[in-house]
Write a structure and sequence with these properties.
alpha/beta; Aconitase, domain 4; Rossmann fold; eight-stranded mixed sheet; seven-stranded parallel sheet; 15 strands
């Protein structure tokens, strides 16, 4: 790791909340088992100087890419097995991470953790390979079990708020701040400018849209990973609530004095957004940055994907998942495309020139003009 690193501590048990506050040179103090790739990318983007994790950054349960991202960016990560010491570090404390994993807080020794190394990551990845089939089986069983409980999603046994935003027979783009969301939004910019779809930001997805100068029409979610600026951008707000009526994000919205709707439905906020668009009469739903595979769900701490499976089963006929669309098409004009374009444009002119006397005379005049310009006459 080289010499020790030091910085101001930013502490939070929820990494997505911490990411809203961390600044250049800070030390992130987190409680995040199996750091996911997106969290790691955002820690790199925020230019965190180091990470102290009071949970295993890579447990070997499955293949999570977050630790590799941090290691490749040169950000030291130290895992501390003593969970009870988490509260010993507070926001603003001066923290040092030394080469041997020793952690100093305000000049005093706190504990010694385990520095994340490539060798450690490799050994955990081998464990993950051995565990994958078992994790897949558990995930499938849990999914089937949850499907039995959540099948009401197919029968519309839930209420959908009526919004001022008109989605009837329109394209709706649902944006989640998931992996590659920036690249996918960039690829879809021309589509957005031309079609002007209704934009729904799912929690931090609203901030993702604002990054590109796009204002969301609707924001839906638990309101735990969106900035105050995002919440106050003027979009209609839908607080995602559990079927029993609990709405974790409601207090924050009330504190900001914002108007809101409540949508009580089982599943993730992404699922709720798709259902909202579907029941609001959307003609087409384009999903950006959503979570759709087992690694996505394990990284999010979910043990099954029943609600996502059922929701996509319901809305699938009007749903286009744009995840990774930037890899399918990368802008850039190739010479053979230009040649084909010229050939396609010239062919009808050639046909007209050989069949129409007027066009034939016009082409002769153009040909003579070009010869005069270049001194060939």
């Amino acid at each position: 790791m080289g010499t020790c690193v030091a910085g101001r501590a930013v502490v939070d048990r929820k990494t997505k909340r911490l990411l809203q506050r961390i600044k250049f040179g800070d030390i992130a103090v987190i409680f995040h088992r199996d750091i996911d790739e997106l969290a790691a990318i955002n820690l790199v983007k925020s230019k965190a100087r180091g990470v102290i994790n009071f949970q295993p950054s890579i447990s070997g349960r499955f293949f999570n890419k977050g630790p590799v991202v941090l290691l490749n960016a040169g950000i030291p990560v130290v895992d501390v097995p003593e969970e009870g010491l988490f509260d010993a570090i507070r926001d603003g404390d001066m923290v040092q991470i030394k080469e041997d994993g020793e952690i100093m807080v305000n000049g005093r020794f706190l504990c010694r953790g385990v520095i994340l190394s490539q060798e450690l990551i490799n050994s955990k990845l081998e464990e993950a390979k051995a565990n994958f089939e078992g994790e897949l089986e558990k995930f499938a069983i849990n999914t089937l079990e949850y499907i039995r409980r959540e099948r009401a999603l197919l029968s519309s046994d839930y209420s959908v708020p009526r919004l001022k935003t008109d989605m009837h027979r329109k394209h709706v783009m649902v944006v989640v701040r998931g992996k590659d969301y920036r690249e996918d939004i960039l690829t879809l910019k021309s589509y957005i400018e031309e079609i002007k779809p209704v934009l729904i930001g799912v929690d931090g997805g609203a901030d993702a849209l604002l990054e590109f100068g796009l204002k969301p029409n609707v924001i839906i979610g638990d309101m735990d990973s969106i900035s105050d600026k995002g919440l106050m951008c003027g979009a209609e707000i839908v607080v995602h609530a559990y079927p029993d009526g609990r709405a974790p994000g409601l207090d924050r919205v009330k504190q900001l004095g914002l108007n809101y709707h409540i949508m009580p439905v089982t599943g993730t906020s992404e699922d709720a957004a798709l259902l909202l668009a579907y029941h609001s009469g959307a003609d087409l739903i384009v999903a950006v940055g959503t979570h759709t595979n087992i690694i996505d769900f394990l990284e999010k701490g979910r043990q099954g994907m029943a609600s996502t499976f059922l929701v996509r089963l319901k809305v699938g006929h009007i749903l286009i998942d744009a995840k990774g669309v930037n890899k399918l098409y990368r802008g850039g004009i190739k010479i053979n495309y230009i040649a084909a374009l010229f050939a396609a444009a010239f062919f009808p002119i050639f046909i007209l020139g050989t069949t129409s006397p007027a066009v034939r005379h016009l082409l002769r005049l153009i040909f003579l003009k070009v010869r005069l310009m270049f001194g060939f006459l």
